[in-house]
Amino acid sequence: MSERTPPNQPRSWRIGNVEIGGPLVLAPLAGFTSPPMRFLCRRAGAHLVFTEMVSCHGLYQGNRKTRRLLEIWEQEHPVAVQIFGGDPEIMAAGVAEVQECGADIIDINMGCPVPKVIRSEGGAALMHDHGQAIEVARAVVDAADVPVTCKIRAGVKTNDAGYLELALRLQDVGVAAISVHARTVAQAYHGEADHEHTARLVEALDIPVIASGDVYSPRTPASLIEDTGCSGVMFARGAIGRPWVFAQAARVLRDEEPGVDPPPEQRLGLALCHAQLMAQYVGEVLAVHEMRGHLAWYTRGLPDSKRLRDRTNHVGSLGALVELFMEYAAHLHETGGRR
Length: 339
Prior knowledge:
Elements: E1 13-15, E2 18-20, E3 24-26, H1 35-44, E4 48-55, H2 56-60, H3 64-68, E5 79-84, H4 88-100, E6 105-109, H5 115-119, H6 125-128, H7 130-143, E7 148-153, H8 162-172, E8 177-181, H9 196-204, E9 209-212, H10 220-228, E10 232-235, H11 245-253, H12 264-282, H13 284-298, H14 305-312, H15 318-335
Parallel strand pairs: 3-4, 3-10, 4-5, 5-6, 6-7, 7-8, 8-9, 9-10
Antiparallel strand pairs: 1-2
Helix pairs in contact: 1-12, 4-7, 12-13, 12-15
């Protein structure tokens, strides 16, 4: 069984042969966790980062957009590439391409409740069919030279303890760690996460468990580690537009105060840095378009933020974005940051 370590002590751990320097993890987030976001979160203190979900069917069919999701920057390591699909042969066939891109870990998504993912017989569809889930995991483990992990849900519906049996069977076929989103498939992203399920998995398994669900506060990782004994804690939506949350959480793990969020000017500077990195990744035009979702989170809670977000949605270049942010910063200075 896993041993519990007080959260204020330095703690590295391993997924297979991959050493993870601490418990803070950036979750896989479709449409968000591209190399720029992963880089910024690693720089801020994340110990492990996950890519967006990558469809092995897309890789098999040679889809260019799918293959773009496999790009990894040197500064990101250790990085886990999350794959999804329901066909064991196609999933195994994708392993070589995923490893070639530099993945330190391969993660199988078995918990995504989004209908189009379930229709592919991947994601949460595998929570409904444990036999198929095990065949998929076995095929990927056998094909991989790097550790394989799985992300599951806390059952299909309330009072479904089948996730414990599934996790034990996944461990038996060689899965090196389990991430659990502590909501059921039926809950999707509604209601509260129940991390009693996380604690049950920690007690049942000999491999590391990573907690996911309702992780927003920088104080939450320390609390979850203490309460459940988990090895890692995933920030998902709580990290969008807030890469500094990892630095804050690291301070709490050292038994210090987390500190306040950066002032508006620093937040805008980080947003612009993110946009510039996105331009390196996908080119300026696409970067400005794809940054709109990120910018809504970076500017959340700032004075006149709704007006700022509305204007960013009509920006067409990095230069125009810089001008907009400079104008906004000047406005904050003149008004003293009043709403």
